[in-house]
Design goal:
This protein has 119 residues and is mainly α. It contains 5 helices and 3 strands; from the N terminus they run αβααββαα. The chain starts with a helix and ends with a helix.
């Protein structure tokens, strides 16, 4: 096994540990109807306790930038804290219907009309 293959395998395992940890926090927040954030120091301590002693902010940023798994869980992050994508966070910052003219409703009606014609 080449060193690069070992390194990629280790990073994939680390990414999985980080994502699982953050998804647990997000699930708890969704159940309580709250937003979720964790300090980077707290996450770093959790990850180090699972056996990844070299985990740091630069490694987290590298894994986030290279993959999609963390991007699906993390809304925003910096060296101080990580904000998770939760249902409550989505309500605070809706990505849809930014034009306030109901364009998503229009598209929905058009799709329903097309489905009726197909039947």
């Amino acid at each position: 096994m080449r060193f690069s293959e070992f390194l990629n395998s280790t990073n994939n395992e680390l990414e999985s540990v980080i994502v699982n940890t953050l998804q647990n926090l997000r699930g708890d927040a969704d159940e309580q109807g709250q937003t979720a954030e964790i300090s980077f120091d707290a996450l770093q301590q959790i990850i180090k306790n699972t056996g990844y002693a070299t985990f740091n902010y630069n490694l987290f940023k590298s894994i986030h930038d290279k993959g999609t798994a963390l991007k699906n869980v993390v809304d925003d992050f910096n060296q101080e804290k990580i904000v998770l994508k939760t249902e409550k966070q989505a309500e605070k910052d809706p990505a849809m219907n930014k034009d306030n003219i109901g364009s998503t409703d229009t598209v929905k009606k058009m799709a329903q009309a097309a489905m009726k014609r197909r039947s």
